[in-house]
Amino acid sequence: MKKDEPPLDFPDTLEGFEYAFNEKGQLRHIKTGEPFVFNYREDLHRWNQKRYEALGEIITKYVYELLEKDCNLKKISIPVDATESEPKSFIFMSEDALTNPQKLMVLIHGSGVVRAGQWARRLIINEDLDSGTQIPFIKRAMDEGYGVIVLNPNENYIEVEKPRIHVQSSSESADEPAEKRERKDKVSKETKKRRDFYEKYRNPQREKEMMQLYIRENGSPEEHALYVWDHFIAQSAAENVFFVAHSYGGLAFVELMIQREADVKSKVTAVALTDSVHNVWHQEAGKTIREWMRENCCNWVSSSEPLDTSVESMLPDCPRVSAGTDRHELTSWKSFPSIFKFFTEASEAKTNSLKPALTRRSHRVKHEEL
Predict the structure, then answer these.
(1) What per-residue confidence (pLDDT) applies to 195?
(2) Taking the CB of residue 65, how many other CB atoms lie within 10 A of it?
(3) H helices present in 79-167, as ranges
(4) Which end of the chain is more exposed for a tag (fewer CB within 10 A), N or C?
(5) Does residue 204 register a pLDDT over 80?
(6) How many Å apart are CA 234 and CA 263, to the nearest integer?
(7) How far apart are the first and last CA of the chain?
């Protein structure tokens, strides 16, 4: 016999769940020290899933707090010209994101439940904050003199409860005799009672009916990337812009490139993709974009080969190398050291290519004489 489902009523703090992050950034039970248990109640998969989702929402807020307090990022509301009443989203930026003259790093996560500052919720809950969040990238970038912008491409709408529309029935028309109206009301009340009873039996915890109000010019990850480019990245002082884009974030970057090809080429120095799901054919990226990607992008893909081993590509876009893991969600964390090395080398190569040809030639002559 199926058990009665307990109320879908969960705590709204980590303490309420009796969990906390330890000094290693691992989520542990306050009393037992055990990792998170998904099957908290056996045979109640839906309830366990709802509990996991409730914890996930708390994790999202917790990461937002870390971005502000631990990484000293500022939360910036978008659209920038939003009215008081319209739906809004936000991104995070370092103090110097728009003024740093040298370097700017832009981070884009994949699709799904993740929000700004996260690579994978599953990793944050089951492994640790280092592997599951973008915080190690942000801290190292800032240590190395980068400005930082953290995108929030999945925050596309706000949810509000659907208003109940009261339709005036014919029995409410004034011309009808009172007796007839009462009889009709009684019938409709009985029908409603039966329907409510059936609903309760079929779905004992009927959740509220919600509607989505989309955020202007940020209604999809692709729209969001374009919006942040136009209003922030394109306005930044940085001579070298670098992107780290995971999974669907890679597709959003390619879409941005299709929409703003000349601007991206003049401002972006290198792009690190991690198990990106972009497809240059399906997205109809032109030849000039594909050529630029071959020169300036690298995709660290899930593979059992050692880190940075070259991986065969079916598509003629950017080089693919192993991320040193065959787990999709771990590709960003595992390729972390290689990505920074790639950016440093790209930056040096650009600096060298911009030196006057004469200087390079005279240097070569001197070298040959030696």
Answers:
(1) 61
(2) 11
(3) 121-126, 129-132, 135-143
(4) N
(5) no
(6) 8
(7) 88
Q: What pTM, to 2 d.p., does this model score?
A: 0.85
Other C-beta atoms lying within 10 Å of the C-beta of residue 213:
11
- Enumerate the active-site residues: 247
At position 299, the amino acid (one-letter code) is N
Residues across the chain: 370
Residue 42 confidence class, pLDDT cut points 50, 70, 90? confident
The amino acid at 144: E
Structure tokens that stand for 343 in this block: 């950016």
In the numeric block, the tokens 């306005």 are attached to 235
Beta bridge partners of 74: 93
Q: CB neighbours of 262 closer than 8 A, spacing ≥ 6?
A: none
139 contacts 72 by C-beta, under 8 angstroms: no
Quick check: 174 pLDDT over 80? no
Task: Please name which of 32, 11, 30 lies closest in space to residue 20, comparing C-alpha atoms.
Answer: 30
DSSP reduced 3-state for 150: strand
Distance, CA of 244 to CA of 299 (rounded, Å) = 10
- CB-facing half-sphere around the CA of 342: CA atoms within 13 A: 24
| 79 cis-preceded (ω within 30 degrees of 0) | yes
Three-state DSSP class for 170?
helix
